[in-house]
Every structure is written in C-alpha cells, then in structure tokens.
Design goal:
It is a single chain. By secondary structure, the protein is mainly α. Helices cover 44% and strands 4% of the residues. Strands 1-2 form a two-stranded parallel sheet. The chain is elongated.
Length: 104
C-alpha cells in the first residue's frame, strides 16, 4: 500500500510541475479551480473572488487590476506574473511617439 501512495504522490507532483510549466492561464476565461491550481498563493476562496470580480466588473485589462480583488495584493500579483495572463499580451505595449508635423 505504501508503494501505491508513493506512486500516486509522484504522479500528482509530476502533473503539478507540468501544469505550472505550461502556458499562462487567462484570468479572463479560467474558472476558479483552474486559477487556484495555476496561481501561487491563491486558494479557492481568492480564485472565486477573482471570478466574481470579473463577472461584476468585466474583463481584466491588466494583471495589476487584480489588486482590486479583495485578498489579492501586489506581492501575489508579482509572484504570478508568468503564471497568468489577461489574454493576448499580458504587458502593456507602449504607444509609438507621434510623428512630427512638418512646418513650412
């Protein structure tokens, strides 16, 4: 029986590492269970709060907006920058500088 428990634990750990090494989870589409599994320091209660906030306020435009969710702080956001995304690119893209206007 101990060998079975060891094997089960090994499989569970291996699948956890494989999941963590995968592509970032989209916080705008993931359910609470997926968010809880993907995010470091986020259990089911906080993951459910993220989903509830998203349903009430609409899609997150940036990862920093997670700080508006009760129980999610800046440290949690920083720990999870590579684990989650808002879809597309997670980072803000700088706007190009305006072209100078030609004067005569």
């Amino acid at each position: 029986m101990n060998a079975f428990k060891s094997l089960l634990l090994s499989l569970l750990l291996a699948s956890s590492f494989a999941f963590a090494a995968g592509a970032p989870v989209n916080i705008n589409t993931a359910d609470a269970a997926t968010l809880s599994a993907a995010m470091n320091g986020v259990g089911m209660a906080k993951a459910e709060a993220i989903v509830a906030y998203r349903k009430q306020h609409g899609a997150f435009r940036s990862l920093d907006q997670l700080a508006d969710v009760k129980g999610i702080g800046l440290k949690t956001i920083e720990k999870n920058r590579t684990a989650v995304t808002v879809g597309g690119t997670a980072r803000a893209v700088a706007k190009p500088a305006p072209k100078p206007v030609a004067t005569r």
